[in-house]
Amino acid sequence: MFPELNRLVLIAEQRAFDIQQIDYKDRFTVFNTLVNQGLLNSSSNISKFIEEFNSLPKFSDKMKFLCESKFSESEVCVILDQIPLTYKKYYQTLGPDRCRANG
Q: How many domains does the chain have?
């Protein structure tokens, strides 16, 4: 008894991959979709947050500012895609509660 290739599963998987490549082409496509569907409060709030974030001088100030933000999870994901990777890694690894606890 030998395994056989199921062509229908292969076609379905390829179609799912193609759709994913269109939907998640880049972060701006995802961001615009979220804004258009009303899932984000406002892109201007996020832009202002990122400007203020970038103006802060120290790493600890930036992390505190990020962890104390009052954005929804979807908005935080958009913000994390637009700030340096170091902050994103800390935020995702430790979480906002642990970052606040560590000061």
A: 1
